[in-house]
Write a sequence for this structure.
């Protein structure tokens, strides 16, 4: 597949269009250009923008997807770039071109690259995605679309303007387990009854929430980090150590990211909106710097969304905690009058319950007989001398999904992107649909700061 | 009196042999495990008597050995060592490459009885190097476990003059 002819993108064009600020995009030379072999015409030729941890997650999920040819990678940290080069060389036995400047990569790979995967810090998602779309490339960009809703809106505009595909990395949208429960259990058979309440969480232990550290000698220098905007939002001139802390821990800074509610909550609040088929009408929230007192973002956030969904009104509670892993990890729980779906990207956290007095008990039995569900156990009362009969509800029966996913969680989403490039499928989460779902999330931190309920209007949520 | 000495020598000989076999098996199997990975076999789940269209599968995982699975230093430990200022990146990469083969070579050399004293000494150095890494990342249980290995190696060196069933007795 060959990239269509595009208009030449100059450095001046991008600085004018981009919102990350002039001075951030001054080019650094490519550090090495290696020999590359021509790809067969039916292969999608892929480049990487950003080669950090999330890139590794994506790459490890991509390696089993057929029909991909890796051609280039870009990162301002040469050690990461070298790791990506080596990983591709050792697995596929060919070389890719390496760049330390995105703009240079997009210019030089014209005609040699069809799509890019953007896995840079959140504040670079929009500039990199817009730059790549305008240069004629298809884009897979990690979520959250941006730390700023207006930049996310600009991504949608760039997708529309370019006519290129732009998939956002809400990978649950392509996960067979999520698609199955939405289509079959919630919509077609409606076994849970009307969903009245939703509860979701991502609880992460202190040990997983600490500052990231690295050897100073492999990190970019202060001048490079300033050039690429890691001093954003600071009034003073930051020294090299401070800039490097921001480079490794950009998720802690309000000018560089949306914080935990965006990093972790975005995946799950997306599912609330997707499954209900509606955007919320309001949000109230509370947050605090309760343990990590020096961080700019709240370390713990709790929020409640109100919905007027097609099936009726509902409310959704969500919490992101970075100070404990107790409480069952991460999941989304949809509580209907007849049963509850507790689903997670982790199969281990996924449970299905039928209310003891469910009026549609015959339907549940039929679903088990036909293979849509597996019954695991009948509800057993906890008992004990402290149980007061008049307070107790009979416990629900427990069920399970009939199967799972035998691939890394990100692989189906990448397969969907590749198949869409071949014209075989539609994207499951293009930029417009992603922003429809992400838009309410941008208002959680402001609601927590102001301690006031935000009633959404089109101005808040439009794409 | 002579019988007592012979009995004592037999005890030392068997003691040495036991230590040799234990330490050899320990090193060989640890080396082999560096090549272990997990394979999965999956089949589509049937719903209404036909394979489902969503891609839901029933998976069964199994252990598999392959050269492509090789990882000398396990991933989580590698990441911790990589952020240690006293461990240079090149050194860690080199160690990652040689650790598995070194364990296998030392294990087989010890099992066959080739230059047993020097093999034991080299094995002691190897376990000491592992101990150094664990000290840096404060893995006290692992340090104690390796300390037990060192004691066994030292005991084997003390008993080395009773070493029998060897391919190369010298050294």
């Amino acid at each position: 597949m060959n990239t269509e002819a595009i208009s030449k993108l100059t450095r001046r064009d991008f600085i004018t269009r981009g919102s990350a600020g002039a001075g951030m995009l001054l080019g650094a030379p490519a550090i090495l250009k290696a020999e590359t072999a021509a790809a067969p015409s039916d292969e999608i030729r892929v480049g990487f923008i950003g080669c950090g941890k999330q890139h590794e997650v994506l790459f490890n999920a991509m390696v089993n997807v057929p029909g991909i040819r890796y051609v280039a990678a870009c990162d301002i940290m040469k050690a990461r770039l070298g790791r990506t080069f080596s990983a591709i060389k050792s697995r596929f036995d060919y070389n890719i071109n390496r760049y330390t400047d995105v703009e240079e990569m997009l210019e030089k790979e014209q005609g040699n690259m069809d799509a890019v995967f953007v896995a840079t810090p959140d504040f670079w998602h929009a500039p990199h995605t817009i730059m790549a779309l305008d240069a004629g490339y298809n884009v897979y960009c990690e979520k959250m679309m941006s730390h700023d809703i207006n930049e996310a809106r600009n991504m949608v505009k760039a997708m529309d303007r370019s006519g290129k595909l732009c998939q956002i990395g809400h990978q649950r949208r392509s996960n067979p387990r999520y698609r199955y429960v939405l289509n079959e259990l919630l919509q077609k058979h409606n076994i849970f009854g009307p969903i009245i309440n939703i509860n979701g969480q991502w609880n992460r232990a202190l040990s997983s929430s600490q500052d990231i550290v690295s050897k100073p000698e492999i990190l970019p220098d202060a001048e490079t980090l300033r050039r690429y905007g890691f001093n954003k939002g600071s009034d003073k001139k930051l020294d090299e150590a401070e800039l490097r802390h921001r480079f490794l821990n950009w998720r802690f800074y309000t000018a560089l990211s949306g914080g935990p509610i965006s990093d972790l909550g975005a995946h799950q609040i997306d599912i609330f909106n997707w499954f209900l088929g509606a955007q919320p009408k309001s949000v109230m929230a509370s947050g605090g710097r309760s343990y990590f007192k020096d961080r700019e973002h709240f370390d713990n956030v709790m929020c409640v969304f109100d919905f007027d969904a097609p099936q009726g009104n509902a409310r959704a509670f969500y919490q992101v905690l970075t100070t404990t892993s107790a409480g069952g990890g991460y999941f989304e729980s949809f509580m209907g009058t007849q049963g509850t779906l507790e689903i997670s990207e982790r199969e281990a956290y996924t449970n299905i319950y039928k209310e003891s007095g469910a009026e549609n008990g015959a339907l549940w039995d039929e679903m088990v007989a036909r293979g849509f569900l597996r019954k695991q156990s009948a509800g057993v009362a906890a008992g004990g001398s402290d149980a007061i009969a008049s307070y107790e509800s009979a416990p629900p029966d427990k069920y399970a999904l009939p199967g799972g996913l035998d691939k890394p969680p990100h692989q189906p989403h990448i397969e969907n992107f590749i198949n869409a490039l071949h014209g075989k499928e539609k994207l499951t989460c293009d930029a417009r649909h992603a922003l429809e779902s992400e838009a309410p999330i941008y208002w959680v931190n402001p609601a927590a700061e102001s301690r006031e309920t935000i009633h959404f209007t089109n101005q808040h949520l439009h794409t | 009196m002579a019988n007592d000495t012979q009995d004592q020598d037999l005890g030392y000989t068997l003691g040495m042999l036991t230590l040799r076999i234990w330490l050899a098996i320990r090193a060989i199997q640890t080396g082999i495990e560096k090549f272990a990975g997990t394979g999965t076999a999956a089949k589509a789940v049937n719903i209404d008597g036909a394979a489902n269209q969503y891609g839901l599968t029933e998976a069964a995982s199994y252990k598999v050995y392959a050269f492509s699975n090789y990882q000398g230093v396990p991933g989580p430990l590698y990441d911790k060592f990589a952020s240690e200022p006293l461990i240079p990146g090149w050194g860690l990469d080199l160690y990652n490459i040689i650790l598995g083969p070194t364990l296998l070579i030392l294990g087989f050399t010890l099992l066959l009885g080739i230059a047993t004293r020097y093999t034991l000494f080299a094995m002691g150095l190897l376990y000491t190097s592992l101990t150094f890494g664990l000290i840096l990342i404060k893995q006290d249980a692992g340090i104690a476990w390796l300390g037990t290995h060192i004691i066994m190696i030292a005991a084997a060196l003390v008993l080395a003059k009773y070493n029998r069933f060897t391919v190369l007795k010298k050294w």
Summary: The longest strand of chain A covers residues 300-309. The longest helix of chain A spans residues 78-92. Chain A has 16 helices and 16 strands.
